[in-house]
Amino acid sequence: MTSQPSSVAVRPDGAAARSTAFQRWSVPALTLAGLAVLLWVGQSGALTKYTQTVIMFMAVNVIVSASLNLVNGYMGEFSCGHGGFMAVGAYVSSVLGVLLFAKDRVFGPPLLPPEWALVGFPLIVLVGGVAAALAGLLVAIPSFRTRGDYLAIITIAANYIVISAVENLDVIGGSRGFMGMKRVVKAMGRAWDLPWMLLWSFGFAVFTLWILRRFVYSTYGKGVMAICQDEVAAEIMSVNTNRMKVAAFMLSSGLAGVAGGLFAHIVGYVNPGSFGILKSTEALVMVYLGGMGSLSGSVLSAVLFTLLLEALRPLQIIKWIVIPLLLILLMQFRPEGILGNRELADVFPRLRRFFRFK
Amino acid sequence: MRRSWILAGTLGLALAAPAWAADTIKIGFNIPMTGDIPKVGESSKYAAEMLREDVNSKGGLKVGDKTYKLEFIYEDNESKAESAVTTALKLIEQDEVLAIVGPNSSKQAVPAGQVCDDNETPMISPWSTNPDTTKDRPWVFRAAFLDPFQGPVAVDFATKTFQAKTAAVIYDLSNDYSKGLAEIFKADFEKKHGAGSVVAFESHGTKDQDFSAQLTKIIAAKPDFIFVPDNYNQVALIVKQAHNLGWTGPFMGSDAWGSAELMELCGDDCKGHYFSTHYAAAGATGATKEFIERYQAKYGYTPDDVAALTWDATRIVLQAIQDTGGLTGDLDKDRKAVRDAMAGIKEFDGITGKMRFDEQGDPIKCAVVVKINDQGEFVFTESVCP
Fold first, then answer.
1. Of the candidates B34, B80, B114, which has its C-beta nearest A274's C-beta?
2. Which of B250, B277, B304 is the last residue of a domain?
3. Which of A168, A356, B86, B328 has the fewest CB atoms within 10 Å distance of its CB?
4. Which of B252, B277, B302 is the last residue of a domain?
């Protein structure tokens, strides 16, 4: 036996340990560069509004799939009610935004000067996320005693509970839907003319990836993966599984709520029908397409899925034959998804030379 | 490397080519060809395609002193709100259409209307009934009458025909159309017959199959008739189950009954009942009759109201384009001219009736009440005008 194989195996880790200033700053610098490009694109009109909207939906989908990956991938549970948490976030942030910053038929004049939306917007999106995180308790608490298929059914039920609750709340439009968010977005634009929605979508997507990465790879967050491997063993090894589950479910649904808030402000109109079981299924598709337990996989699949939906438009009805067929083929030949439990840096170890993302 | 550049260049040119082709007018269709209601998108597309062939076979559309070929671009909005937004933006920016027809259901028409209004592109929704679609949006129009008009039509007709003093309502809580119409109906009926005259007001969910609980309550309240503002697939179930529970009185429905599939699902149970709608296929005359016969010959089934409304909506767009008196070629100016012409249409003689637009862009037009006869046809009974 030569020492050749072991030195190859060691090298990536060794490289990661000796992180240079370049590695440390490459991701923040890339993020800033991304923001700058988006800013330029939005201001100069280099990309049409259509392309910009597709980019925004891409960011929303990144948040949705990455956050669902925490529960379905890293924790190994099967949650299929992600749409419901998006709905909570969407409605809470929309109602708050309209209440605070826009004139409305139901709520009357805004409570705060509309210009404050500039500062208020990220806050209301975050409040929507917090509300969705609280709604996540609906699933987190039953998960103490149930697992697998039974928990999956509970998550579907949670989705239906949220949708029915919204449908029966006439104050926020019931099944008619709720609108007025465009006025909040326009108020931001009037206060300072920048492509705010583009910037915030990108910003929140990066925020989501950062927080998930920090959580999953922290000593505390390793408990999530321990639960996935063996819950009983994790319990014996002093992981407080109940607390771990609450944290994972609340973080996951809270981020879904953030995605919902962004979605509502991009579309400018929310309707309970938009967050039904179909939306949850889309989120699931993105997670399994990208690979469970892989953040970069979730990003790749969300981007790919959004692009596919737009790129295959010319096929019209056939599109919905081609996309599911692609999924079947993928599951047949690569059941673990595009990246499957590995990150981009595991597949291409040389990438580690260039960045460190924690 | 070089070869790929050449390839990319050729592809780019090939894609750009249609944009250079002169003398065509592009109209976008933002319709649901997949998703919950694909039949609606299909009807819209078929009707529009028939109209396009008509105009192009006669050489094209004459605007001012120039004749243009029509190019219709059909985009699928998957009957999703977010997709309707991207579809509208794609039509406006990538395809550079002059005007947009659709989306059909309010869930998509409300957000897409916002996009069209923001980007100053005329839009006309054939089928959307939610007031928010056109409200305070000068660039957005519609071809269907609104529920606040349809509700009273049902009330007046039932009062007169059934000599009704009391009514019961069963509606779909999660369908905004059904819920809105049920509430308008209740308010209007109680205004005319006194409080408490709507003896039962029962709701159900969209995917429900069993309505016996609601129907038992309704039948126990002994109303003079039952108002069912539901989609045709649920109507079939509700009417059958009511008959099984011993109900023999009349039903009154709304325009969502008017699908080609209603009679297949409902059969004999639905015969003899009435509903208000946009047009009556059986017993139609003139242009309406011609449209129905040609559509039937071409596609093999009687056109439903969406097809008829799309036909009218698209013709309104064409009429408005002609009324501009000539296109400049500058898209922004032309879109403005088309919008102004559309708002200024004095009277439009459509196959779903004569109409003109009010200041909100909503049509002022008549509704018809049809009876389902023993052959299962929808026969014209009465026309109610505002």
1. B80
2. B277
3. B328
4. B277
Stretches where chain A sits below pLDDT 50 are 1-16
Tell me: pLDDT of B18 over 80.
no
Q: Are B316 and B345 in contact (CB under 8 A)?
A: yes
Instruction: For B125-138, write each residue's pLDDT tens digit.
Output: 998 888 888 988 99
Tell me, yes or no, whether B316 and B254 share the same domain: no
The pTM (predicted TM-score) of the whole model is 0.83
What does the pLDDT look like over B62-86, one tens digit per residue? Answer: 998 889 999 999 999 888 888 899 8
Residues B141 and B269 placed together within one structural domain of the fold: no
Q: How far is B136 from chain A (nearest CA, A)?
A: 12
Q: Where are the beta strands (DSSP E) in chain B?
A: 24-31, 61-63, 66-76, 99-101, 123-125, 140-142, 167-172, 198-204, 225-228, 251-253, 274-277, 348-350, 353-357, 363-365, 367-372, 378-384
Domain that holds residue B51: 2-145+285-366
Residues of B in contact with A273 (CB under 8 A): 81, 107, 174
Please enumerate residues of A whose Cβ is less than 8 A from a Cβ of B: 48-50, 53-54, 57, 163-164, 167-168, 174-177, 179, 182, 263, 266-274, 278, 309-310, 313, 316-317, 319-320
DSSP state of A60: H
Collapsed DSSP state (helix, strand, coil) of residue A332 = helix
* pLDDT bracket for residue B286 (50, 70, 90): confident
Task: List CB contacts (< 8 A) between B181 and chain A.
Answer: none
Q: Is B111 on the interface with A (CB under 8 A)?
A: yes
CATH number, residue B250: 3.40.50.2300
* B114, B174, B175: residue with CB nearest A268: B114
Return the higher-pLDDT residue of A27 and B322.
B322
Cβ separation of A263 and B82 shorter than 8 Å? yes
Q: B141 is written with which tokens?
A: 């129009």
Q: How many domains are contained in chain B?
A: 2
